[in-house]
Structure formats: structure tokens, C-alpha cells
Design brief:
Number of helices: 21
Oligomer: single chain
Largest sheet: none
Shape: globular
Helix content: over 70%
Strand content: under 5%
Structural class: mainly alpha
Number of domains: 1
């Protein structure tokens, strides 16, 4: 059964059938040929996966990000980032990192980040004399922060499939995201000094206060999300609804540039973006059921045990597999396949579902930067009219930085579990 289930899935993927239907086709064929079970089970499992309150977080956070972006927050956040680090060598490159960190706390999507920020930051860095391919690589690498810090859509997907607290996963992404951003900033400083890039420019104290005042509204959203969840005021999903209300109030009454047309277009865009992961999650119910029915987790565990019983080596092996899978498959398609197989193995080794959630999301974020699929890599090349091969070469240092942080997450549980542990106190 396992061969048919996975074989049909990958065959359908090779002929460019949408990922969600690849999952559904694999489940239907495997169930029909090998089990004799009624196919109505597929619809029951699909319905049970969708009957989950946490799934509402996906369209809510996407809608909040869409509305805030149409309010013109990207420019305000970039201006603030430049004001913060403009007096340092490599300030504009560091501002790229900070801008993604700020924007990620609103959108939760790496692709939304690179689409919104790339069009502004790439021309500015080119004007300051930065290599255009380095600029593209940096912009893509920093965009992955949006998939790690709250409110990450990737954590919502993983948490729904794994049955893990999404609020705890949001909190778990804070330290890894800040660590990644910090090391990226240090690298930007070293790169700028080595290549003799100038300081971006300083602003006076009065100018900085004006810029900060203009940026307080967009900065308030991630503070409300994290503070509300941490304080137990609302759940991660309810925080999404609060974010939408906050974005509407900011756009209509503060910035006064959101019209009915903008709101309507935001709703349409949200429906299109959120439909894909929702459909994938729906079909993943049947896929997870058949994986368990075919004893895939047990068989995979036995396969790994036959190779090594060393815990360190097993974790390295799983990370390597996830990195390779992420190079060839979109993250949304990976979760329903690997989570039901890997999670029982790692839990049996003493790895918590929270830590594994950060490990897999971080792995697949790296996959967004690598050919041949590399969604963020190709998105930044499209935005900046760049050559993907040349940008990919400049991406190597950023990938190595990310892998270094990944090893820290893997072997130091405190990195991903400290902040969530505060929720339980």
C-alpha cells in the first residue's frame, strides 16, 4: 500500500497535477486497490481535518497582512529600519533584515514579504553600490524570517496536521527568528566593511521620533499578537481576528487610504492564497490515515534503526532528508506527507512536537531559497529582474548561516522551547 500511495502521489506531481489533488489521488487509488475500505472514509477524513477552529488563522492572518500592506506600511517600516541602522556601515543591508523582521510580524508569509519589500529595497541597495545578485540573495534570505516568527502561516499548517498548539508554535519561533536575523545583520556588516560600502546616512533625534511615530501602528500588530497570546487574552486564531480588526481600523481611520475597493481586493486575494493550503490540509487527513494504516511510521523507524541507532546521527539524517525534500517540493505539500511519518519517531526519541515543528519549518524555509523549486528565490528574481543562477551563488553564505541556526535548534531544545514554556507557567 505504501508504494502505491507514495508512487501515485509522486507520479501525479511529475505530470504537474496540483499538489492537493496529488494527495487526494494517491489516497483514492491506494484505498481502492489495496484496502477494500469504503472510499467514503476519504470524505470523512477530509471533513474532520477542516472541522478545526485553528484553520481560521490562515485566512485571518493573510487578510490582515493584505489590508496593512495596502495601507502603505512597507515604506514606513523600511524608513524606520534605515533610521535605526543608517549610521552603521552596511546600514541599508541591515535595514533589509530589519524590514523583513518587522513585516514578518504582520504578514506571516515569506512570499508576501519578498513581493512587498523587494520592489523597494532592491533598487535602493543597487543605488548604494551593492552587487545586484547579493542584493537579491539577501532580500530572499531575509524574507524567510516571515515564515519563522509569529504569526507564521507555516506553523499554522504544521500545528493543524500535528495536533499541536499553534500559540506555543508561534512563541517557539521567536528566539530562532531573532537569532537568524542577528547573524544575518552581523554578516551584512562584515560584507559592507569588506567591500567598503558607505553608511546609509544618519537622521536627527527629532526626525527619528517622527519616523517612529509613523511606524507605531504597523509595529503594534505583532506586539498585540504576541502579547495577547502570551498573556492568555486570546488564542492564536482569535489573535488573527484581532489583527484583521486592527488592520481595518488603521487603514480606515488612521492612514485613511483604505477604500471599499481595496477591502474587496484584499478579500479576493486572501481567498485565492488561503484556498491552496486549506485544500492540502483537507486531503492530508486521508493521507495521514492511510500512512498509519500502512504502518509507514513504524516501517520508516525500522529503516532508520537499521542504518543507525545514534540519536545525533538520526537527527542529522532527518534534517538532511528534510533539506533535500524542501529543495524539490513546496512546504505546504511536505507537511501532510512527512509529519505523520517523522513525528512519532522523534517523539519516541524525546523530541517534543514543538521542537520538531520549528525544525521542519526552518528546514523548509531554507528550501525556499534553493533551486530547482525555491519559491522565494524565483520570486525575488522576478521582482528584481535578476538571474536565478547568479543569485543562487550569492545565496550560499545565507544558506550556511541558516543551517548553522538549524543545528542549534536541533541540538539545543531550549532555543525553541523556552518561550513556549513561559505560557505554561
Amino acid at each position: 500500500m505504501a508504494i502505491i500511495l507514495l508512487g501515485v502521489f509522486f507520479l501525479a506531481m511529475l505530470i504537474n497535477i496540483p499538489i492537493a489533488f496529488c494527495l487526494g489521488l494517491g489516497v483514492f487509488v491506494a484505498m481502492t486497490i489495496t484496502t477494500g475500505l469504503p472510499t467514503s472514509i476519504i470524505s470523512l477524513k477530509m471533513n474532520s481535518m477542516l472541522n478545526n477552529f485553528s484553520l481560521l488563522a490562515i485566512p485571518l492572518y493573510i487578510l490582515a497582512g493584505q489590508i496593512m500592506n495596502r495601507s502603505g506600511i512597507s515604506g514606513r517600516l523600511l524608513t524606520l529600519a534605515k533610521a535605526l541602522v543608517g549610521r552603521i556601515h552596511g546600514g541599508i543591508a541591515m535595514a533589509n533584515v530589519l524590514d523583513s523582521l518587522f513585516f514578518g510580524g504582520i504578514s506571516g508569509s515569506s512570499l508576501a514579504d519578498v513581493s512587498s519589500i523587494g520592489a523597494m529595497i532592491i533598487p535602493e541597495m543597487k543605488k548604494d553600490g551593492y552587487d545586484v545578485n547579493f542584493t537579491g540573495a539577501l532580500t530572499a534570505a531575509t524574507a524567510t524570517l516571515s515564515g519563522i516568527i509569529p504569526p507564521s502561516i507555516s506553523f499554522v499548517l504544521y500545528g493543524t496536521i500535528a495536533g499541536t498548539s499553534i500559540a506555543a508554535l508561534f512563541m517557539a519561533g521567536i528566539i530562532p527568528g531573532l537569532l537568524l536575523a542577528t547573524v544575518q545583520i552581523i554578516y551584512c556588516y562584515g560584507y559592507a566593511r569588506y567591500h567598503h560600502h558607505p553608511k546609509t546616512g544618519m537622521v536627527s533625534g527629532r526626525e527619528f521620533l517622527v519616523i517612529l511615530k509613523q511606524s507605531l501602528i504597523p509595529l503594534g500588530m505583532p506586539i498585540i499578537i504576541v502579547g495577547g497570546i502570551y498573556g492568555g487574552v486570546f488564542t492564536a486564531t482569535e489573535a488573527g481576528a484581532v489583527s484583521v480588526l486592527y488592520a481595518i481600523l488603521a487603514g480606515v481611520f488612521v492612514y485613511k487610504n483604505i477604500k471599499w475597493k481595496d477591502f474587496y481586493e484584499s478579500l479576493i486575494e486572501t481567498a485565492i492564497i488561503s484556498a491552496i493550503p486549506t485544500l492540502i490540509i483537507s486531503f492530508s487527513g486521508g493521507f495521514a490515515f492511510l500512512s498509519t494504516y500502512a504502518d509507514l511510521p513504524l516501517k520508516f523507524s525500522q529503516l532508520i534503526s537499521s542504518l543507525t541507532t545514534n540519536r545525533t546521527m538520526i537527527l542529522i539524517l532527518i534534517n538532511v532528508m528534510l533539506l533535500i525534500i524542501g529543495m524539490f517540493m513546496d512546504g505546504a505539500a511536505v507537511y501532510p506527507i512527512v509529519v505523520p511519518i517523522f513525528l512519532p519517531i522523534l517523539v519516541g526519541m524525546g523530541i517534543s512536537p514543538i521542537q520538531f515543528g520549528v525544525i521542519i519549518v526552518f528546514n523548509l524555509s531554507i528550501g525556499l531559497l534553493t533551486p530547482p523549486v525555491g519559491g522565494v528565490l524565483y520570486a525575488v528574481c522576478a521582482v528584481g529582474d535578476l538571474n536565478p543562477t547568479k543569485v543562487a551563488k550569492k545565496m550560499i553564505p545565507f544558506i550556511l548561516i541558516a543551517i548553522g541556526i538549524l543545528m542549534l535548534i536541533t541540538y539545543v531544545p531550549w532555543v525553541s522551547e523556552y518561550v513556549p514554556s513561559l505560557l505554561r507557567k
